[in-house]
Amino acid sequence: MAARQTKKKAISKREASDEGVGSSQRSLDEDLNLKIFAEMRARRTKRQKKVQSEFREETEKAIEELRVDTVSKFRKHLDDITNMHNIFRQEQVTIQAEIRELWVEVAKTHSKFMVRLLRHYKAFWSKSR
């Protein structure tokens, strides 16, 4: 749109200044102006496409780097969680074994206590008779 207005302004200025110039010269100038404007437009379009292409490539590269970084962080985090889970399982097995040992001790102590209690009970009743 701006290119059209610029072109119209250039043509109207040229017409005003070229009143004494023949129509063939004016036609050549207009053709030259149209070619120049067309070439400028083509160059601008080419630059814009190049910039857009570079931006697209940089964006795709950045997205790929982000994806790779995210995946590696996720895998590291997953490995950490897996290691912690394995450690937890080992600790759980160890604690369960210790609990079993403690229950065995409790059972032994309870048995000893019950044996002594029965002896004392028998001794008490045998003396009281």
| Computed Rg | 48 Å
CA(first)-CA(last) distance: 127 Å
Could you estimate the helical fraction of the residues in percent?
Answer: over 70%
How would you sum up the major sheet? none
Low-confidence stretches: none
What's the pLDDT, averaged over the residues?
Answer: 86
β-strand number: 0
Helix count equals 2
Can you put this structure into words, describing what you see?
The model has no long low-confidence stretch (mean pLDDT 86). Helices cover 95% and strands 0% of the residues. It has 2 helices and no strands. It has helices at 2-17, 23-128. It is rod-shaped. It has 129 residues and is mainly α.
Write the layout of secondary structure elements.
Layout (H helix, E strand, L loop, with lengths): L1 H16 L5 H106 L1
Helix pairs in contact: 1-2
Structure described in brief:
With 129 residues, the chain is an all-alpha fold. It is built from two helices and no strands.
Sum up the structure in keywords.
single chain; mainly alpha; 95% helix; 129 residues
